[in-house]
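Homework-ish question, so no full write-ups if that breaks the rules, but can someone show me the predicted structure for this set?
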Amino acid sequence: MDDSEICLSFLVRQAWLNMRSAVDDALAPHGLSVAQYATLLVLDEQPGASIADVARVVASTRQSANELLAGMERAGLVERRPHSRDRRTQELNLTALGRQRLKAAKPSVHAREGELEAALDARERAAARTWLAHMARAGHLP
Amino acid sequence: MDDSEICLSFLVRQAWLNMRSAVDDALAPHGLSVAQYATLLVLDEQPGASIADVARVVASTRQSANELLAGMERAGLVERRPHSRDRRTQELNLTALGRQRLKAAKPSVHAREGELEAALDARERAAARTWLAHMARAGHLP
DNA sequence: GATAGATTGACAGGTTCCTGACGAGTATTT
DNA sequence: AAATACTCGTCAGGAACCTGTCAATCTATC
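A: Not a homework solution, just the prediction itself:
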């Protein structure tokens, strides 16, 4: 295939774009964007996290996370209240609605992703995962 | 394994973000952005392509490609002239400068990418490539 | 304790990319 | 030949994200 000439980065980009739109489609019926879904995932695993925490986990910036969370608060998905000990930060927590939406959306996302890689065998899937995990982390050590 | 809990898409996103910044660093000395480099690659392989062609290959839109190409024309990297047969479209071609920049930058990009996945063996790299190629194409059938 | 350094959330401004629409030109159908 | 349906490049406007900066606050060192 002619993809051998093309840069490896662009192959990763195409894969990401394609998966993103697939997940977006799966998320649309639940009224969530991909970024919002990611934020819900983070806050479900780390309740009480700060805006900066969320930004770090999703590899974004404090500002982007701030704007995103403002919208999510307006939608009643999350709740921000002052931190008990650190007066700079805010504690972020899922609301009941946020938890419910996440619980409802998660199977759809997993199903859509599984559907995409259904044609590949377990060995390739596992190898891809280790490859991706490495590429996501490589270059941060020096 | 905490990777099983996290969404697969986000792993791909992180890998793409990481590779993108690495390639960006490799490209900076040559005065090129990632998008410009991609466009140079496309026009080197398909001389005389139109704006819409470029947009299709890099999975972007005509408008984005148009803006990008306007800047590259200003920088003297590409040249746009009216198509000989179709009066709607423009023929895009690399200038001598564009070809020279591409030739100079390509080894840097390949070196940086190879450096990133240096710790992985050939089997994993090959499996990742087929996985990525599949994920970049899956879901276009319906 | 006091002071320097780092961190948090917010504001302004800019970049990049996208959606939607338009006129001009081409391809396809009747 | 005429009408319809595409496709082309481009303009207007907006969404998403980033950098740079700021005061307020916490942490660490002297």
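Now go work out the reasoning yourself. Hint: The mean pLDDT of chain B is 92.
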